[in-house]
Amino acid sequence: MNPSKPIPLSSPPPPKRSGNRLLLFLAIAVVLAALAFWPGRGAPRQADIPEGATAHAIARQLTDAGVLQSRYPFLVWVKLRGASSKIHAGRYRFLGGRSAFWIVNDLIAGHTEKARVVIPEGWASWQIAERLEAEGVCPATPFRQIVMAQHLEGYLFPATYEFEVALAPATAAARLKARFEQVWTAEMDARAKMVGMTRDQVVTLASIVEREVRARDEGPMIAAVYLNRLHRGMRLDADPTVQYALGGWKTRLTYSDYRNTNSPYNTYLNAGLPPGPICSPGLDSLKAALWPAQSDALYFVAGDDGHHLFSSSYREHVNRVNHRNRLRRAAGAKK
């Protein structure tokens, strides 16, 4: 070793910055992931998403409702997930602070509020409209307008439905009509042709039967009475048609109602079937109109046992009415 030569001092190693940068990157990624995928907590906020709304319109609506703080992350996720055509209309409740990712996820999955709605047999469209509005499904007035414009009276099939809340009236009407189309079979179509009736005539007759029946087993007899009257050229004289013309199901009609209700639905003044159905008949009444009882009855009157009394002649009918009234008076006198 040369003692005259200075010994070089070793320089310190360069700082390991790559590891620090990686940690910083991971920290930022975690924060961004949390912001993107945080499911949300806090009080829910409500938003009604209309059918056919664009992603930009929905983003503005959610921002105005306080669901989103910025619409841009929402629009990015809609684009990345191809969600524009997958969003379901309806009423949503989003948790406060819910991220755009989960909001888009909810919209795609259709996590809307639901309403269980029962439509009874024999209800007219105005009653159905009022119930749909009361359950928050859709407003009554535009629903009724759609029913009238599309001639859907009688075709809003009575059943139990699960509707989305804040649904478009046209969609609600279409769903009720679709249920009717499921119930109306090819056999029923063939039977209607066999008896010389159109489907609309069958539904119209069935709707009258539906409003008249007091017990399900007498539907075919009531249908037979009205068909016998039609074949003889007699007026139907059906109280429910007058009630429909008056716009409500009155408990008791007056002489003025019968004679002064100037409407094609008044079967006391007009021969034949009314222009269309007066309510939504159930399956039993549809079948009764297609497969009536074999009977020559032309009249019926309500008895006191939950059924009707049927007669083949006017004299027999009057005698039945008088006998029923005598029994009622006697029962009243005993009280």
List the helices and strands and how they pair.
Layout: H1 17-37, E1 45-49, H2 55-64, H3 71-80, E2 90-94, H4 100-109, E3 114-118, H5 125-134, H6 140-150, E4 160-164, H7 169-183, H8 186-194, H9 199-212, H10 219-232, H11 239-246, H12 255-260, H13 283-290, E5 299-302, E6 308-311, H14 314-334
Antiparallel strand pairs: 1-2, 3-4, 5-6
Helix pairs in contact: 2-3, 3-4, 5-6, 6-7, 9-10, 9-13, 10-13
Notes on the structure:
With 335 residues, the chain is mainly alpha-helical. The protein has 3 domains: 70 residues, Dna Ligase, domain 1 (2-Layer Sandwich), CATH 3.30.1490.480; 70 residues, Endolytic murein transglycosylase (Dna Ligase, domain 1, 2-Layer Sandwich), CATH 3.30.1490; 112 residues, no CATH class. Helix content is 50%, strand content 8%. The strands form 3 sheets. Strands 1-2 form a two-stranded antiparallel sheet. The protein has a two-stranded antiparallel sheet with strand order 3-4. Helix 3 packs across helix 4, helix 5 packs antiparallel against helix 6 and helix 9 packs across helix 13. It is elongated. The protein starts with 16 loop residues before the first helix and ends with a helix. 32% of the residues are buried.
Strand content: 5-15%
Query: Which class do the helix and strand fractions yield?
Result: mainly alpha
Please, how many helices?
14
Succession of helices and strands: HEHHEHEHHEHHHHHHHEEH
Number of domains: 3
- For the record, give the distance between the C-alpha atoms at the N and C termini, rounded to a whole number: 139 Å
Mean pLDDT rating: 89
Q: The biggest beta sheet, please? A: 2 strands, antiparallel
Tally of strands: 6
Strand order of the largest sheet: 1-2
Identify the overall geometry.
elongated
Supply Rg: 34 Å
**Portion in helices:** 40-55%
